[in-house]
Amino acid sequence: MRAATNPAEFRRPDALALAHIWVAFALFAVGTVLGLYQLLERAEVVPTSASLYYGSVTLHGVVEAFVLTTFFILGFGFFVTSTSLERPIRWPRLAWLGFSIMLGGSVLAALSIASGKSTVLYTFYPPQIAHWTFYAGAALLLVGSIPWIVITVAMTVRWKRENPGRPVPLPQFGMTMCAILWAWTMVGVVLEVLFQLLPASLGLSQTIDVGLARALFAWTLHPIVYFWLIPAYVTLYSIVPKAAGGYLFSDEMGRVVFVMLLVFSLPIGLHHIFVDPQQAAGWKLMHAFGTFLVALPTLLTGFTVAASLETAGRLRGGKGLFGWIRALPWREPVTLGGILAALLLLPGGFGGLVNASYAMDAMVHNTMWITAHFHLIFGGTVVIVYFASAYALWPKLTGRRLYSKPMAAAQLWLWFAGILALTLPWHILGVLWMPRRTAYSPYDPQIVARWRPYSDAMIIGGALLVLSAVMLLINLLLTHRRREAESDRAMAYAETMEPVVTVPSLLNGFAVWNWLLVILMVISWAYPIGQFFFMDVHKALAWSPK
Ligand code: HAS
Ligand code: CU
Question: Phi, psi at residue 435, to the nearest 5°?
């Protein structure tokens, strides 16, 4: 791919990307401090307080799962779209408007949680009902992201029209899939908020159909994790191999992966509510099979990324079966981030496969095992790639060389170690049946005593993570003020082993996949959601946390 994306050549959305990513990381750092408090509270090192604990978990979850992700992905996405298609962002004012709406919504939701009236955790499962300002804030965050979807898709469509037969650059292919995925992902939670949660929070309805709400939320909860994941894969495919000094092993494999993530992730979600009595066993089993399918693209990604890194290791003189691994540039932060992320993917994905196995989920559901799974795969793999992406982008965005590469590498190692120190004990605690999302557990003393050593270990993990987050902010902040200019502000993406001249039209298009996913989504969700409209439902009394 050509490297002609110097900001001097056309208006690049550098300020837009920086604004988004700074909001993401600033709030992310606050979230890590809340996380550490929660660990101290659960281990009873600080006085236990149910109201503070649940308030903190709510803010932590909302900030890390919704604010960090959405702001980072949009900022990264605008940059990738503009630099890979080599043109300015269309409708930049609309993009900024979206940013302002998202920011306003995030602040509103955060204030609502801080007021203590919206302690409903990030999944906001009813019958707990938050103050209406919480849902309004969440809705604004979603609405504010719509301009990005429109701009991303519109720019790809126009580029394709102007470049008939040419393959859409892989990073933009991935980000377009991500935008389409996000559009469909939102629908479940939007319906839940508009028709169930908001009316209950405004006092218009006193009761709520909990089964329906949980099914609608599951529609969103599963694919949203792939909305977080796809941009990380874009970096793994298109940025990391180049940073390592190698080539992308296969462009087509990347396209297949993005297509599979889109098509297989939306029609599943019942694995989050395997224990819900309202859903039938047959449907749950079908969604379990679907969940195994959506693990495939990640296996392909592991293979492709490892093969790409191998090209780098061999070009750098690595010999033999494993010699290439040692030859990789381990001190180079972007490469290091990619390697550490791939390593964490293995245990994180393993946990996911246990969860997805219908019968086994009963052992681990609602225990610390689940918390371990997603802190490993999201907080570990995905977030480490977000860091690595920032280290790759910052010199391009600011025009300054990264303040300190050794500090960046140390930050990544600390995060890696912190995540392992946090989640390995959590897996054991999960199997010992420590419940997740619980301020304190005054259970049988013998059971609680078995948790003790692992509860202490997790505090060390939390402390490492806070330290690492602070190092990230310092490094990025000081880069802005650095005197030494970055000599090459053009953004070049990884080239493939063999030049990509043409790709099959199915791997260069979106409409077919979009319609296929709609059909699959209707097949897999029409009954699990539709049944609530014709079965005898016992609604629950809506209540608000005080
Ligand atoms: Fe998950 C719950 C199943 C992936 C996030 N997941 C969650 C929740 C979150 C989350 C946030 O089936 C909690 C929601 C809540 O609060 O209730 N998940 C899966 C499965 C996968 C999976 C099967 N999850 C993710 C990703 C996430 C994420 C990705 C965020 C980004 N998850 C579940 C289930 C539940 C669940 C159940 C509900 C459980 C319950 O009871 O509530 C798969 O996509 C995972 C596939 C991954 C693999 C790993 C492949 C390994 C590779 C490593 C290669 C490394 C190499 C090393 C080669 C199969 C690719 C290279 C090294 C060098 C040195 C070069
Ligand atoms: Cu899921």
Answer: -70, 150
